[in-house]
Amino acid sequence: MYAKIWANLVLLVSKYYKQFFIGILGTLKISAISVIFGTLLGTLIAVGKLSKSKVLNSILNFYTDFIRGTPLLLQLFFFYLFFPDIIGVDWSKQTCILVALCINSSAYVSEIIRAGIQAVDSGQKEAAKSLGMSDRNMMIKIILPQAVKNILPAIGNELIMMVKETSLCSTFFLPDVMTTTKALQTSLYMTVEPLIIAGLIYFVLTSLLSKCVGLLEKRLSVSD
Amino acid sequence: MTNAMKLIEVKGLKKNFGELGVLKGIDEVIYKGEVVSIIGASGSGKSTFLRCLNRLEEPSEGTILFEGVDITDKKVNIDKHRQKIGMVFQHFNVFPHLTVLDNITITPILEKKMKKEEAEAKAMTLLEMIGLADKAHEFPRKLSGGQKQRLAIVRALAMEPDVMLFDEPTSALDPEMVKEVLEVIKKLAEEGMTCVIVTHEMAFAKQISNRVLFIDEGIVKESGSPEDVFDHPKDPRLVEFLSKVL
Ligand SMILES: Nc1ncnc2c1ncn2[C@@H]1O[C@H](COP(=O)(O)OP(=O)(O)OP(=O)(O)O)[C@@H](O)[C@H]1O
Ligand SMILES: [Mg+2]
């Protein structure tokens, strides 16, 4: 049995590496899009959360709590099935799934940003205020540049999470590593071998990204 | 001092943190050119009083007139007034992501629309005054505590304030660095800068002040010249406090 598995693995790597490569690109693309748009949206949400408006605060807190408190797969199904009708747009199913991922990511990133900003020593804010700096300048020139040090590595970790989470997209046939894996399982009548390759791919991807985040963290902490 | 100009006039100042009443009604005037030291036990509200003067703490009750303007009025642009009220903190609070020079120039450039060259020229003069000109392009992490605090002082001076508030400026320093910071404050005071200094350095307070305030139980229990307060204290709580710290 092991000999057969080995033979199949060799076959997959030698003959079907292209499919896996396309899958890897797909996974990276979907994860990157989710985290990039999630970061843009998450920044706006974080700004709203730090504002003084109580109403806005509770709405946004509910938004993030709700998204972080329900399974991603459920959210994907919801967007896949109902989102276009609710909003009244004619988007493809794939776009709907991407929107769901971005929204999911935005909830996590907004918390990362809020926490990153709040982690900046309160004395910095007081010093800026005592000099007569406006709230806006204080945020842009004093607080955010220091918060970035906390925020960027955490967003890198969010990307790593997303690389794994996007495997759920295969349920909806978005082109990623897991979709490739499932397609090969069906067409080649293999069960475990494509999974082994996929597992290795995910592990290598997340390990490499972790290394990058580690390096980034080191660079950023130099200014302390 | 009766004919001197009132720079800060505090009337009926109260400050509560939730249930805790920290300041219970303070009436005090700081005149232009005065050097006022504030002493008192830990937790007596010295910092709170100082921080109310530039509204880093919002007073619960009372008014604060700064150069005749009620700055407790929510409609005033507090940022503009804060530019005239320099403040130096116990923990320096220099901006770690900016060079020494940028620490000084950033606020004049942003808020006073000062030209970069002009701001930098002024900053260099200030850095020369405190002997840190050679560190202009370093980041604060390269500075000692005493150097950071001197930087914090000139950063505030770059805004050309009319008064400087110091909150225990030497408490976080190693003993050998206290002197260099006190020297700078002393020089400022001698040049006529109005200073309000919260301090545990009693000898310094005695030497530099025109007036000393003893804050206790939320009010100014005793105030007077350094000789009155330190050598002839009247209030029993002040007598007790001095017996502990002197
Ligand atoms: N933001 C705050 N929230 C709640 N309580 C506070 C706050 N700031 C100060 N206090 C309380 O108010 C009281 C006075 O504090 P304050 O810092 O003004 O004292 P202090 O005289 O400066 O003391 P120290 O000599 O230790 O610096 C203390 O009991 C303190 O715990
Ligand atoms: Mg204090």
Outline:
The complex is a heterodimer of chains A (224) and B (246). Chain A is mainly α and 224 residues long.
Describe this structure in words.
The complex is a heterodimer of chains A (224) and B (246). Chain A is mainly α and 224 residues long. Chain A is built from ten helices and no strands. Chain B has 246 residues and is an alpha/beta fold. Chain B is globular. The chains are: A mainly alpha (224), B alpha/beta (246). Chain A binds chain B through residues 121, 123-124, 126-134, 137, 141-142, 145-146, 223-224, and chain B through 54, 56, 79-87, 89, 91, 93-97, 106-107, 110-111, 139, 141, 152, 155-156, 159. The complex binds adenosine-5'-triphosphate and magnesium ion (MG). Adenosine-5'-triphosphate binds next to β2 and α1 of chain B.
Entry keywords:
heterodimer, A: 224 residues, mainly alpha, MetI-like fold, 10 helices, flat, B: 246 residues, alpha/beta, six-stranded mixed β-sheet, four-stranded antiparallel β-sheet, 9 helices, 10 strands, 37% helix, binds adenosine-5'-triphosphate, binds magnesium ion
Q: What would you call the structural class of chain A? A: mainly alpha
Helix count of chain A, per DSSP? 10
Helix proportion of residues of chain A, in percent? over 70%
Topology as H/E string of chain A? HHHHHHHHHH
Strand content of chain B: 25-35%
Low-confidence stretches of chain B: none
Give the arrangement of secondary structure elements:
The complex is a heterodimer of chains A (224) and B (246).
Chain A: H1 2-15, H2 17-50, H3 54-68, H4 72-81, H5 83-87, H6 93-118, H7 122-130, H8 135-165, H9 177-187, H10 192-221
Chain B: E1 6-17, E2 20-31, E3 35-39, H1 46-53, E4 61-66, E5 69-70, H2 78-82, E6 85-88, H3 100-111, H4 116-129, H5 145-157, E7 163-167, H6 175-190, E8 194-198, H7 202-208, E9 211-216, E10 219-224, H8 226-231, H9 236-245
Parallel strand pairs in B: 3-8, 3-9, 6-7, 7-8
Antiparallel strand pairs in B: 1-2, 1-4, 4-5, 9-10
Helix pairs in contact in B: 3-4, 3-5, 5-6
The complex binds adenosine-5'-triphosphate and magnesium ion.
Adenosine-5'-triphosphate (ATP) is lined by residues 17, 20, 22, 40, 42-48 of chain B.
